[in-house]
Amino acid sequence: MLGAVALLAAGCAAGSAAAVPASGPATAQQLDSFASCMRGHGIPDFYFSTAGSNFSPGPTQTYIKIGGYVASADTSLPKFTAAQHACQSRLPVPAPLTSAELEQELSQQVRRAACIRAHGFPGYPDPAIQNGHVSQPAPPSSIDQRSPRFQAAVKACH
User: Fold this and answer.
1) Which residues of the chain have pLDDT under 70?
2) Which residues pair with 24 in a beta bridge?
3) Is the separation of the CB atoms in 65 and 73 below 8 Å?
4) Taking the domains of the chain in order of start, what are their residue ranges?
5) Which three-class secondary structure string do you get for the chain?
6) Neighbours of 23 (CB within 10 A)
7) What pLDDT score does 133 carry?
8) What is the pLDDT of residues 72-105, one digit of tens each?
9) What is this structure's pTM?
10) What is the dihedral of CA 67, 61, 123, 4, to 10 degrees?
């Protein structure tokens, strides 16, 4: 997971559905609304399925997990970030983590970043805590996130 919850904690154009409540877990209806908005903003085939299903992202895809649901998308595309920002109001704000949960998540993500660096990407950044959530900064532009080598490193370190 590439900071997925923080990555996706980011409304659609006027005239679309109302914003969701400001806190609590995302419901299937909210995820459907978010996915529809993402597709409407140029991210085709963006759908959530249950995390236990036979889910397999493509070679340039990143897992995006929210609760018990998972989707895949090429998060390196500039239009992904634009769509995410346009659709963020469709999701509730994640509940804050306890200090212990935050430290555990940060520790896991730091180990993941170190693993990716050890797999040949020395410029891959460490995550940081921002606004009570673990956030993974975007890799430098020198790292081609769509390259098979990078995808193999991500898979090995997942």
Assistant:
1) 1-26, 49-72, 94-95
2) none
3) no
4) 4-90, 99-157
5) CCCHHHHHCCCCCCCCCCCCCCECCCCHHHHHHHHHHHHHCCCCCCCCEECCCCCCCCCCCEEEEECCEEEEECCCCHHHHHHHHHHHHHCCECCCCCHHHHHHHHHHHHHHHHHHHHCCCCCCCCCEEECCEEECCCCCCCCCCCCHHHHHHHHHHC
6) 10
7) 77
8) 677 777 788 888 889 888 877 766 778 888 888 8
9) 0.50
10) -10
- pLDDT in the model for residue 18: 27
- Token pair for residue 129? 């805590």
Query: Which residue has 């659709």 as its token pair?
Result: 87
